[in-house]
Design a protein that fits this description.
Elongation Factor Tu (Ef-tu), domain 3; 11-stranded mixed β-sheet; 5-stranded antiparallel β-sheet; 4 helices; 12% helix; globular
Length: 258
Amino acid sequence: MLIRDPRPISLLTGDTAVEAISKLSTNRIVLNSENNSDRIVVCDSNGRVVDAPYVVWDENGVILLHCTTKIPEYLSSVARTLSKNSSHVMNATGAIERFVCQEKYLPRNAGMSVNGLGVSGLYSIALNPLDYENIHVVDLSSDLLIEFGGLTDSHLNGNHLPHHIGLLEYVRLDNGCYPGQEIHARMDSRNPSSKKLIRINLQGPRDIKSLTIQGHKCRLIPEWSDSYAHGITHQDLLDGEYETEFGMVHTATVNIAL
């Protein structure tokens, strides 16, 4: 099964596109025909994540696979920077087909893929697969994103630090001055993060804000699916089944959020 991802896609043209988006990100990326995919994390001035798009190199430019449901505002700044060199930011949503699937079901003729994502690294992004007419296709929903270990608008839009939602590996303080860098540097020197993002199989009432799992407090992210919620808890909590004040729960770590 393929899941069609309708979230926005942007195409940045010009030789300075990679540099322009690296200046906004918590990490500096290198993209070319050999290293053809990476990820940026864009934060606000408080160090909280606005967007975390995968970035794909293409002969026509740099493709941003946004995690937000709307085209993010920071692209206006990127567009102004690129326009100085007669380059552009274009909306490529619809022109590029984007799908999500379990990696073991990845179409053999996918144009390009990003693998090892989501819960237990089981999921992949596929771009422009060919001849998928005989494969069952459904549309991506926030419920499926939560089940897979993906980011929804509740994770983004300035709600959470990257350290807490499966994006810590993209925080690299040697990337100079980016929005939120001072906050991240202070955390790194004074109070290194010990949190992680988990998926919880939870059937309790929907007004729960937190619960305790094996002695660790778990703060829940408000958006739930029918069967799953995401929570932020201590990194020492192992994946497994636990008794809580709201009944039995099964937890799984989201190592790299989709």
